[in-house]
Hints:
2 copies of one chain form a homodimer.
Chain A: E1 3-8, H1 10-13, H2 20-32, E2 36-42, H3 46-59, E3 62-66, H4 77-84, E4 89-91, H5 93-105, E5 119-121, E6 125-127, E7 136-142, E8 145-150, H6 154-171, E9 178-186, H7 191-197, E10 208-214, E11 217-226, H8 229-247, E12 251-254, H9 259-270, E13 274-278, H10 284-290, E14 299-305, H11 308-315, H12 319-325, H13 330-344, E15 348-354, E16 369-375, E17 381-387, H14 393-414
Parallel strand pairs in A: 1-2, 1-3, 3-8, 13-14, 13-15
Antiparallel strand pairs in A: 4-5, 6-7, 7-8, 9-11, 9-12, 10-11, 15-16, 16-17
Amino acid sequence: MSAEIICVGTELLLGDIVNTNVQFLAKELANLGIPHYYQTVVGDNPTRLREVIEIASKRASILIFTGGLGPTPDDLTTETIAQCFNTPLIEKVEIIEDIENKFQARGRKMNDNNRKQALIPKGATILPNPTGTAPGIIWEPVTNLTMMTFPGVPSEMKRMWAETAVPHLKSQGWGQEIIFSRMLRFRGIGESALATKVNHLFDLTNPTVAPYASLGEVRLRISAKTTSEAEANTLIEPVAQEIIKIAGLDYFGEDDDTIAQVVGALLRAKSQTVAVAESCTGGGLGAMLTDISGSSDYFWGGVIAYDNRIKMSLLDVSQEALEAHGAVSDMVAQQMALGVKKRLGSDWGISITGIAGPGGGTEIKPVGLVYIGIASPDGQVEGIECTFGDRSREIIRYLSSCTALDQLRRKLTRK
Amino acid sequence: MSAEIICVGTELLLGDIVNTNVQFLAKELANLGIPHYYQTVVGDNPTRLREVIEIASKRASILIFTGGLGPTPDDLTTETIAQCFNTPLIEKVEIIEDIENKFQARGRKMNDNNRKQALIPKGATILPNPTGTAPGIIWEPVTNLTMMTFPGVPSEMKRMWAETAVPHLKSQGWGQEIIFSRMLRFRGIGESALATKVNHLFDLTNPTVAPYASLGEVRLRISAKTTSEAEANTLIEPVAQEIIKIAGLDYFGEDDDTIAQVVGALLRAKSQTVAVAESCTGGGLGAMLTDISGSSDYFWGGVIAYDNRIKMSLLDVSQEALEAHGAVSDMVAQQMALGVKKRLGSDWGISITGIAGPGGGTEIKPVGLVYIGIASPDGQVEGIECTFGDRSREIIRYLSSCTALDQLRRKLTRK
C-alpha cells in the first residue's frame, strides 16, 4: 500500500513555476506514515496523462493529483481519469450551485465554461473546495485504488487536503500514528558545538532528536511518533527540558518564534523601551523590531546614521572617537547606543556599525566586521565585536540585526 | 526526439527540500527548444530507479538525471544506469586525481568512499564537475538515447549544465534557435490597465509580448526566438521602445533593476542626497535604500519616529498637526518629510506614516491607509495618500517603502 503523486500542468514542464505542491504533499504523506515512492509531472496532454495514470495504477493504491481542474479546455485531469476506467462523467447540481454562489458573492455571473467543473466520474465523491471554484474528487474506480484530485492553486489544495483528504485517509486506517514535532531554537552557538553538548540524545528512537542549521541559527527538532498529541507531549517534554537546561542562554525560542518576538515579549514584561541607532543596517534592525504587531508598546524609534555627520549631530558621537577609532569601532558603537538612548529617552539603546561590503573593507577592518553597542537602563554600555566573514551584503546586514537583538535578549534574560 | 528529467533522492520523497533543480532544467530545455513531457522523482532505491529508467528510455531520447552521484552507499544513479544496459563500470584515473587534488586544496585527504565516484560505465564520457567531487557522465548506451547525470547540489549542477551539457546538446544540433528575453518593469499602473494600452502588441509572434503581475509591480516580457543575441536585440528593441513610450513615467526599469537601484542612480546622477523619516515602516525604507552597495553616496540617514514624541522631538512635527489630523495624515507626513530634510541637511526628505495593521485601524482610517511625504530641494513638499487595503502587515510595509521610492523616482525623472 503506497501513494503516488501526479502533478499535471504544462507550466511545470516549462519551468515557469516551482512545484511547491509536491513538497507539501510529500511531507504530509510522510507525517501520516503513508509511503510514497514516485512523483510524476506531466503536461496538459490527455494521452500522456493517461499513460502516467496506467503506470501509477499498477504501482500504488492511492493516486494524488494536482492541477488540471480548471474551467478551460486544457484542464483535463478529471475526464482523463474517468476515461482510464471507462466511466462516464455526470453533472453534479450541488457543484453548479456552489460555483454560482461563489460568483454571486464576488458580484459576477458564472461563465458557461465553469459548468465543466461540475462534471465528475459516476460513483466519485466530491472533495469540496471551500475557497475556489474547482472541486476535487475522491474516487475508488476499482478495489484498492483511490484517486484524489486537487486544483494546482497551493492555498486551495492545502485547505482541501487538511479539511477533507486527511480525515478520509484516517478513516481508511492511515495516519493512526502521527509524527508530532517541536523545534527548539538556538543562537550564538554553532551546530557542531551544540551537537557535542547534546550528543547522547541523538541515539533516542522515540522521540528522536535531529539538528538543523540555518543562517545564524541552529535548531533541534524533537519528533515523537504517537497516536495523540498529549502522548507526544509526554514523550517530548522531558527531552526538551533537558536540552534547554544544557543550552542555557543560547536557547531563545521554539517553532515559529522570531528573535524580534522574543525580545519584544521580554521588553513588554519588564515595561521597558528600546531605541536603535543604525549605520550599516540602514534601518533593518528597526524594521525587524517593528515587524511585530504591537511593537509600539516597547519600540520608540531610532536614528539611521549612515553618514558620519549624522552620527555626530543626532547621536552625539564625538569627532575624536571617529578620528581615533573610525566609524566602525567599539568606541563609536558604544557612543551611538548611548546617544540614541539619551536622545530618544528610551530604557535601552542598541547600535550597529560595520562593513557590509562588498566594497569598503581593508586589511585591518575587513568586510563582515561589525560592532554592536548596547546601552542599559542603568547607564552602562557594552560594545561587542562580530566577524561575519566575507559574505554577501544581504547576509551581513541580516546577521548584524539578528545578533544585536540576540545580545539584547541575553541582557534582558539575565537581569 | 524529446528529453525527460529524472530526479533521484529520498529527501525529495520526504518533502525535506523543494525541487528547484527540475525547474531550472525545465526552463533550460524550453529555451533550447528541446521538448520534454515528463519529470519523475524516485528515491535512492535501485529497483525502482531501474524501472523508471526503463519506462523513460522508451519515451525519450535524452534522459537527464540529478542526484545520487555522491560517495555514500545510497548514491546509486551511475551503477543503476550501467546495470540497465548490462555495461560494466570502469575506474577513471583522471577522476581519482581530480578528487585527490580537490581534497588537497581543502587541506584534507581523500576518503576511500570517494573512489566510488570514479566509476563510470564503459564507453561513457566524463561530464566534469569543476566545483564538487561528483562528476557526471554523458553516455549513449544505445543509438538515439543519451544519458546525462548531474549531482543534486544546485550550484554544481547548474555550472556543469552550462559549461558542458549545453555545448554538447548544441553540437548535436539542439538549441540552434534560442529564446532571448527582455523584461520591462512598471509601477503605479495595474496589469489590466497596462495591457489595454499595449494590447496591439500581444498579437506579435516574434518577438512575443506577455504580461506578468507581482506585488506592486507589472512586467512585460518581450521574447524573441533567434540564432544570435544580436538578432534578438534587433527584433526586441523597437518593441521595447514603443512600450516605453506608451508607458511613460510608469516604466521604471528592466530585468534585475530594483526601485532602490533606479532611485539611487538618479540621485547620483544629480549629485543629490536623501534622508528618510519612517513611522509604520520602522526602518524598512532606509533598509531598502541601503540594500544597494555604495548608497552612502546619496543616502545620509534618517529618523525612525515610531512614537509620536519622536516625531515631535526629532522631526519638528507640531503637536497641533498631531492633534488636529492624527499621526496618520497628509499633514504629518509632510511635516515629517520637511523635518528630516532640515534636520539631516539632505536635498530630499521622504516620509512614511500609516496603519500597517493588523490592529489600529478605524472606519475612517482603515488598515492599509498610508501617507507618503516628499520634500524637494526647492523647499516644496507634497503628501500622497495610498490605500493598500486590508492586507498583511508585511505587504503593507513593503508596498509603502516601494511606493515612497517610486514617488521620489517620478519627481527625479520629471525635473
